[in-house]
Amino acid sequence: IDGVTVTSEFDGLALFEGLAVGDHDYTASKAGFVTQNGTISIVDQNVQEFVIMVPAPTTYDAFFWCSEQGSPMGSSGIDITIDGVTVTSEFDGLALFEGLAVGDHDYTASKAGFVTQNGTISIVDQNVQEFVIMVPAVYDAFFWCSEQGSPMGMSGVDITIDGVTVTSEFDGLALFEGLAVGDHDYTASKA
After folding, report:
1. 59-68 and 128-136 beta bridge pairing
2. What is the pLDDT of residue 93?
3. Who's near 5: CB < 8 A, 6+ residues apart?
C-alpha cells in the first residue's frame, strides 16, 4: 500500500499502521498465485480486509499472429510447431496453442515457399502473444552457357525467365537473383 510492502505472518495477518483517512489501493502477491488488487477506505476507524489468494493456473495459452512479409494482413496456412504439436494459422493469421506449461517453448513456423522461422516464447504468469512474419524463400539460378563441342564459356547467350532476360558474360555465366521456390521455364537463345 502506498509503496510500502508488508509480508503476512504465519497466521495470515499483515498490519499497516498509521494510514491516513481516505482510499488506499493495495496489491497482494505471492509466487504461484494470481495477484489480487483492491481498495480500502479509511474513514474514522481501523479497517480489516480479507484477501483470498487464488492459485495461478499452471498452464497458459499462446496466440500466434502470422503474416507474410510486405502484407499487413494475416496469412493462413502457416504451420506453427511447439513441443511436437502443430497448429495451422487460420484465414485471419491466428494460431492458438492452449495449455502450455510455464517456461520456455521453442517454436518453428513454416510454409511452402517461405524461409522457416524459429523462435522461443517464454510463459511466466499469463497468456502470451507472438508475431511471426514469413519471408519468401528466394534463390539464385546460375546458367553456364557454351557452344556444342567447346569447353569454353560463351558470351551473348540470352536467357529469359518470367519475362526477364539476362545475357551471359564473357565466361559464359548468366545469373538470375531472387527466384521464388518452384518451377521456372526458361529459354536460351543466340543468333
Report:
1. parallel
2. 94
3. none
The x, y and z cell numbers of residue 185, run together, are: 521455364
Name residue, grid cell 536467357. Answer: 159
In the chain, what percentage of residues exceed pLDDT 70?
100
Can you tell me whether residue 103 is helix, strand or coil?
Answer: strand
Q: Which three cell numbers stand for residue 172?
A: 559464359
User: Residue 138, Cβ neighbours under 10 Å: how many?
Assistant: 13
Alpha-carbon distances of 149 from 5, 146, 154, 155, 156, rounded to whole Å = 88, 8, 12, 15, 17
Q: Report the alpha-carbon distance of residue 175 to residue 122 in Å, rounded.
A: 43
Cβ contacts of residue 83 below 8 Å, gap of 6+?
100, 105
pLDDT digits (tens, 9 = 90+) for 75-108: 999 999 999 999 999 999 999 999 998 889 999 9
d(CA 83, CA 100): 9
Contact predicate 142/161, CB 8 Å: no
- Per-chain mean pLDDT for the chain: 93
Question: Three cell numbers at 67?
Answer: 503474416
Question: pLDDT at residue 70 above 90?
Answer: no
Torsion of CA 137, 142, 148, 152, to 10 degrees: -170
| Residues β-bridged to residue 88 | 79
